[in-house]
Design goal:
heterodimer; A: about 260 residues; alpha+beta; Phosphorylase Kinase, domain 1; 3 domains; 7 strands; B: about 190 residues; Rna Polymerase Sigma Factor, Chain: A; Arc Repressor Mutant, subunit A; 9 helices; elongated; membrane (chain A); Znf_put (chain A); Anti_sigma_zinc_sf (chain A)
């Protein structure tokens, strides 16, 4: 590869847009051309500078409120949740739809008592609260051996703390919070410019299936491992939060990582 | 600008809209804010873009709602800007005249980049719109080349060369401001 070609392709390489053979050619060129390697280093530095959070301009609350629904928080306010299912019903055969509509209120009644929805609501509120200035962290550390002991004496359980920096989810700190009537440990991770809050508290049930829900632009993933309830919330893409949860759980069962 | 607009009462369509589109409100605002460089203007653009999105939501045939919404935000910005016809409204951009500059980042600029986000902020604001939107979509929204091409209506090759030019320009700008900062100190 010649430097002239490399000048342009360098950016595609940086952006992970080259195919395998071009990537190999570029890596080879960068090893042998100090000028292009220096360019590459400069642009890596530039990219790192872009991850500073203040560059990303989030929508003001007023705008968000204007375009958000009031969420159904009580039994009296069940209608919006039911309408959310209406398009599915309409797409079915008419008789089937009628049958489905009759069962919907019962279906909803069953779900209403499930406090998972309430937890999602509270998790989102907690996450939004945590994004206010000075609210995010009580202990600031990227070291799991600093964060974990910090919780000792503040909670009646010892939270699981993992550093997933190698996978692109660096741990940045921890905080005490309250969720669903419990005192909970909140771990704060970052994914590029995004914040991930991971709440945990002990429960009596052994395990529960992973549940994923989305509300107000946030993804919430809940699960239970070894008598510990976990709720992860973030505005990252759902697939990335899934990956985070997977990594955290995998790590948790691997004896080598303890 | 219909800033007192309230979306209509809850309907299945609106609920569907909220689920599909609302998650990308931050992305919409970020792009609008970087294009307009002004809070109030950005809110106007997003407000108008959301109205358009809501109006055309029936024509949205699945796919990536973020790309769809960002394309609307971008079009809204350019159409409102043309209507306003401000002094720089006819900023023309020729992909061929903005060549690559062979310059390396000075050590001072490297330090500046690491410590002073304001310098990058200012340099980014100075880029011509076609370069600015490309780099904002790439670095802040983490869009792929294909997504940027789809949002901006450009070919992938154009996206690549604009990103290259945007980064070269930022580098040059940062090197310049670091030199000025040094002079100022002396």
């Amino acid at each position: 590869m010649m430097c002239d070609d490399a000048r342009l392709l360098l950016h595609a390489y940086l952006d992970n847009e080259l195919d395998a053979s071009q990537s190999v050619a570029m890596e080879h060129h960068l090893r042998h051309c100090s000028a292009c390697a220096a360019q590459h280093a400069d642009f890596l530095q530039l990219r790192a500078a872009f991850t500073q959070a203040s560059l990303y301009r989030r929508a003001p609350d007023a705008l968000r409120v204007q375009w958000s629904f009031p969420e159904p928080t009580s039994a009296a306010n069940a209608a919006p949740a039911r309408t959310r299912r209406a398009p599915i019903a309409l797409s079915m055969a008419a008789g089937f739809a009628a049958a489905l509509l009759i069962t919907l209120p019962a279906f909803y009644a069953l779900h209403r008592h499930d406090n998972a929805n309430l937890t999602v609501e509270e998790a989102i509120s907690g996450h939004i609260r945590s994004m206010q200035p000075q609210h995010l962290m009580d202990v600031i550390s990227t070291d799991q051996h600093t964060v974990k002991p910090w919780f000792a004496g503040k909670l009646d359980f010892s939270p699981r703390v993992k550093d997933l920096a190698n996978a692109g989810f660096p741990l940045v700190g921890g905080r005490l919070d309250a969720l669903d009537g419990h005192d909970v440990a909140a771990l704060i991770y970052r994914r590029r410019l995004h914040v991930i809050n991971l709440y945990q508290w002990p429960v009596s049930s052994e395990t529960a299936a992973v549940s994923v829900s989305q509300q107000r632009g946030y993804t919430v993933i809940q699960w239970t491992d070894e008598h510990m309830r976990f709720v992860a919330i973030s505005d990252v893409e759902e697939s990335q939060l899934q990956q985070f949860v997977q990594l955290f759980r995998n790590d948790a069962v691997s004896p080598l990582m303890r | 600008m219909p800033s007192d607009f309230r979306p209509p009462a809850s309907t299945p369509r609106r609920t569907h809209f909220e689920v599909c589109v609302l998650p990308y409100l931050d992305a919409a605002y970020n792009l609008a804010r970087w294009l307009t460089r002004d809070d109030a203007d950005a809110q106007d653009v997003v407000q108008e873009a959301m109205l358009r999105a809501f109006r055309y939501f029936d024509s949205f045939r699945g796919g990536d709602a973020r790309v769809w919404l960002l394309a609307i935000v971008r079009n809204t910005f350019y159409s409102l800007r043309a209507k306003g016809a401000s002094d720089d409204a006819h900023e023309s951009f020729d992909d061929d005249t903005h060549g690559l500059i062979d310059e390396q980042l000075s050590p001072e600029a490297r330090v500046l980049l690491a410590v002073d986000v304001r310098a990058l902020h200012a340099a980014l604001g100075q880029l011509p719109h076609p370069l600015r939107e490309a780099i904002v979509l790439r670095e802040l929204e983490e869009c792929s080349y294909k997504e940027i091409a789809s949002i901006t209506g450009q070919k992938i090759g154009t996206v690549m060369s604009r990103l290259a030019r945007a980064r070269e320009r930022l580098k040059t700008e940062l090197s310049r401001s670091s030199t000025e900062a040094c002079r100022h100190d002396v």
